[in-house]
Amino acid sequence: MARRDFYEILGVEKGADQDTIKKAYRKLAMQFHPDKNPGNKDAEEKFKEAAGAYEVLSDTQKRAQYDRFGHDAFTSRGGGGAGFQDAEDIFSHFGDIFGDLFGGGGQRQQRRSRNEPRRGSDLRYVTEITLKDVLSGLEKEIEFDTDENCKTCNGSGAEKGSTPEACHTCGGSGQVVRSQGFFAMASTCPTCHGQGTVVKNPCKPCKGKGRTSVHKKIRLNIPPGVDTGTRLRVATEGEGGYMGGQPGDLYVEIRVKPHNKFERRGDDLIGDLSVSYVQMLLGGEVEVPTVTGKATLEIPRGCENGDNVKLSGEGLPSLRGSRRGDIYYHVSVEFPDKLGKDEEKLLREIAKEKGLKVSSSGKKLFG
Description:
Elements: H1 6-10, H2 18-32, H3 41-57, H4 60-69, H5 87-93, H6 95-98, H7 105-113, E1 123-129, H8 131-136, E2 138-149, E3 165-166, E4 175-180, E5 183-188, E6 197-198, E7 211-222, E8 231-234, E9 250-256, E10 263-265, E11 268-276, H9 277-282, E12 284-289, E13 294-299, E14 308-311, E15 327-334, H10 341-353
Parallel strand pairs: 1-9, 11-15
Antiparallel strand pairs: 2-7, 3-6, 4-5, 8-9, 10-11, 12-13, 14-15
């Protein structure tokens, strides 16, 4: 089944600005919010679909990739958007959107986190590679810090043998309600800070937080053909889950360092090349640089200043297929600083044969 267009999902034009996109998403989020549609699977799917579209279109770089390649831009991630697992995952990504809807989706998430399994958040990591790495791919070790359930208290925050107690201030709801005339105002409980529970005997290793910091080292396989902005998904290597919930995923974003000789255009490379005026006229072979070394390039007879000459199959591999791009050399004519006597004599004979008037001998060639 073909995936729906992200602009169509949010009901906006392709050229819509970020404010319009955000307003459109807020409207859909309010319409299909789980609290307004309890038990409605269709509304839940539309809620996740809208979040996936907003996650891409609200990010300038991801939106540019989507506009160029469509859903194929995110095939390495297993689909467009962040691949949200459930509503709680969406709340964790877009707390600013839900902060003023339904009393705050983020507070709803916090109140349940002490007692129910919940998936950990996805993490983002940026790594830099060279153009040569793009050509061959590489295995790279990356390191980062994240949180996971405290193994001593299993995430409860309470010392072994004890459990968190319902907050006496809010009665376990995580909110306190104050009446002001005809209105009732709900706010986060100041005692439990929205958790609904309090820990009387905190766990010593995690100091009652239920979470501990962990330093991770993982080996990442970066395939050939990646580009700046490519995101690689490493399943279950994100933040640890809560109360036995699944860990989040790690998304590694690629940055390709600029090359000193080549500019990248898709799978092709563009470089500059100076060629002797004699070879420009008569054609011939020249040695040219490539990403990995040198190669021989055939200059066609009668090549003109500013022409592009192609070296086939020496560009970059495609991320989506087996084809390899080409290198295009932007040719400029190279004149000698000084002519030898024999070279000047031959050129004067050619000029005479063609009836061309030239300067007298001994004058400086250029400058």
